[in-house]
Design a protein that fits this description.
By secondary structure, this protein is of the alpha/beta class. The chain has nine helices and seven strands; from the N terminus they run βαβαβαβαβααβαααβ. It has a single domain, classed as NAD(P)-binding Rossmann-like Domain (Rossmann fold, 3-Layer(aba) Sandwich), CATH 3.40.50.720. α1 runs parallel beside α2, α3 packs parallel to α4 and α4 runs parallel beside α6.
């Protein structure tokens, strides 16, 4: 067989390098806003570690919804206020998916009572989850987030509206807001953002439980947009803050509430 010396040498086909999967840890990720955030981030192509406190069935259902749509997810039970359990949660994310790029701390506890009547045991439980839990999760995030990553905490717009009955809850969320910019500054040079989302009235099962139709209607009319927020509204905000389009936003409290004063 003869060859043509003038024939061009075939150019090798370049081998494409797959883009590494970004990984999110979502605490409280099996129900309410946390579940919707988990589903949104999974749709955006992230592997999601769904943390939950006790409802195994809800966590498994969230993971099933993600995986049946072609995504990657795992569920991990952990008390966010237990530093050893949270360290194990992050270990699982690193072992199964290779690292952690986004942490969304949606786990939280709500208790309503006038300050004069509040059972201090309820106060301690509330603050253990909302303050200590946020601190423990933020501590692991600060140690482990990869460059380009993001931490998103959760507060409440009631920090601004200061409604009666919300004293203990608002105090706990005020603490979350207070550490936001501090943590962002402590992570200088890491290319990691830290922000807090403070939703207004949002139509979750937890929010709607125990309220009359009249109360719900009044709350829906309070924002300038005259409706309740949806978990999807909040998930879109989280996706923006943790995506490349929102990476210049850092150390901020974002009140996602439709214009609630």
């Amino acid at each position: 067989m003869t060859t043509n010396p003038e024939a061009p040498t075939p150019t090798p086909t370049p081998t494409s390098v797959p883009t590494p999967t970004r990984v999110a840890v979502v605490t409280g990720g099996s129900r309410g806003i946390g579940r919707t955030v988990s589903l949104k981030l999974a749709r955006d192509g992230l592997a999601v570690v769904v943390n939950y406190a006790g409802d195994t069935a809800a966590a498994e259902e969230t993971v099933k919804t993600i995986t049946e749509a072609g995504g990657r997810a795992a569920s991990v039970r952990a008390d966010v206020a237990d530093e050893h359990a949270v360290a194990a949660l992050f270990d699982r994310a690193e072992d199964e998916f290779g690292g952690v790029d986004i942490v969304v701390n949606a786990a939280g506890r709500l208790a309503l009572s006038p300050i004069a009547d509040l059972d201090l045991a309820v106060l301690d439980a509330l603050h253990r989850t909302n303050i200590r839990g946020t601190f423990v999760v933020a501590q692991q995030a600060a140690r482990r987030l990869r460059a380009g990553g993001s931490f998103v905490g959760f507060s409440t717009s009631v920090v601004g509206t200061q409604l009666p009955g919300y004293g203990a809850y608002t105090a706990s969320k005020g603490a979350v807001e207070a550490i936001t910019l501090i943590l962002a500054r402590e992570l200088r040079g890491r290319d990691v953002t830290v922000n807090t989302v403070a939703p207004g009235p949002t139509a979750t099962d937890l929010f709607l439980e125990g309220k009359t139709p009249e109360q719900i209607d009044a709350l829906a009319k309070a924002p300038a947009l005259e409706r309740l927020g949806t978990p999807e509204d909040i998930a879109e905000v989280v996706a923006f803050l943790t995506g490349p389009e929102g990476h210049w936003v850092n150390g901020q409290i974002l009140r996602a509430n439709g214009g609630l004063v």
